[in-house]
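Sequence in, structure out. First:
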Amino acid sequence: MRTAIKRIRTTAFILILIQIIGVILFSIFYFLNEFDFQVIVEPLYVIIAALAIIVIDVIFVWATVSSVSSIRQQTNLKAADVIGSDVQEVYNFAMLGLVVVDENNIVLWTNELFKNRHIDIVDLNILDWQPELFHLSDSSDEAAVVKIEINSRNYEVKLLTEAGLYIFKDTTDFETISNYSKEQAPVVGTITIDNYIDVVKNEEDSNDLV
């Protein structure tokens, strides 16, 4: 989609440039009256030309919006269409997020976990969005995992390089329980007393005096 948008921008720039050059040339010929331009060009022709430019611009805008909408629909697939509804239920239960990227790390597709959590990263560079993930793309270890935080939730992320697939595992509940257990764990202390025998002997002597 990023390529399509770039192509549309280039086309729009060329179209606007042509129109600007046309207006400049028309103004020069008209006001300098080159080749009796003021006599040749009647006001009606100017109005027709202006209307033609407006119509061309409207058609271009309409075609652009239609093209972008069509491309957006093609990339906005549901996870159930890609991996099947049964498997998707498993991913939802396990709170697994899936992100597919292209060779330039542009996000092409995400599953429903991101949509449900209002994380819209389609068409973004995933490394710009989460720079910590660069360690995965730069690592040769397929088992490498990176921990990140998104919207106050913790995730462990793994990359399947050949598939261009990032797997996000929500570990928020596990880490919350783990931290709670650590905070509530009992603490055992050890006290060492020098000359313990002398202390006991002094206590015995005190008891004898009493």
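Second:
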Amino acid sequence: MRSLSIPTYRFAEIADSCLAAAKSKSADARRLRHYIPSLAASCRAFTRLVLRMRAQAEVELAIMSPESSRPGTSNGGMSFSRATSRQASRFCASPSPTMSSGPALPTSALGSFRSPLHKPGRAPLLRVFVLSPEGAWLSDSSVVECEKELRKAGVIDILRPGDVVWDAAVGDESNDGRLVWDGNYLLDLDYTYSLTGDLPQYVHSLAYPPSYWHNVIRVGGNPLCHINLAPYAADMAANMQLLQDRVQVEIPQGGRHTVVRWVHRTRFRVQGKGLIPLSAGGRRQAQSVDAGWEGIVVIEAEGTNEGLADLHGRCGPGAVYFGFEPQEMPANRSSAFRLIREKSRPGEIWLKPMREKDQLM
């Protein structure tokens, strides 16, 4: 495939040459424009291939799971699963329909999915090729053209919320040209708290594994996530504590000092497969909590009245906790948190609320 053999930076170089030739009206404009349809077609083929790899990985995982690998009980106990019989034929000299009615195949026999194009449990990085005269920041018309490319590829009906689409014509610097599919439209990344871009607020992070966008959406430090705290307000209020915390900070001279600070710390338990409340805007579809979040979630906020009020405001108007009266409840429904990697571990995830003072724009 051309999309695999051509280095990714060459897509941006050809796109820049086409735009420059079109502006200068040089003789090379027609020759360079000839490459655009072929590059767009190669990116569409790459997108179809990546989604095919994701479907294959899910099928293999379903075969390896104990529930799906049980033999069927209909037709005299024989299973006519095409995938199971195909796997059985690798180990039997003369396969027959009755061979699949025995014990389930071991996991080692089924093997595991491996591909450089897609990693199971991670968001796929799909490609389109759309020229962007405005540069790295895609205009509304360019985003619409990206959606048209997905329709031409025939994958618009199999896209899932959270899939990442990259316009290869923009370049591979940071998160340039990366868009997130929300189920209906392509959304720009959120640059409120980061110069490189974070997940948009319409994507609920609890519906995906914590590492779902790792290395797909590039972040310099702790990733941003959006969580609705309303279902966990009572649990948070019962576990709220005001504590002293010691942290190491760097000084301009290069040394490190230990600083004592006050923090509000609370925790709540997340149950897998629980339903996520729909947002007021209605852009989110009904989703359930991913099993990767199951366990304890610890939230650490500033040990001030403002920090406590911020947590209270995130729990919604129906939560009268934390010592606030209903008329004093702040009107803050922010859902942005930073996932603290250095403190998190399996079964326990630490979050830090992002407030207005953390905004860059």
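Remark: The mean pLDDT is 79.
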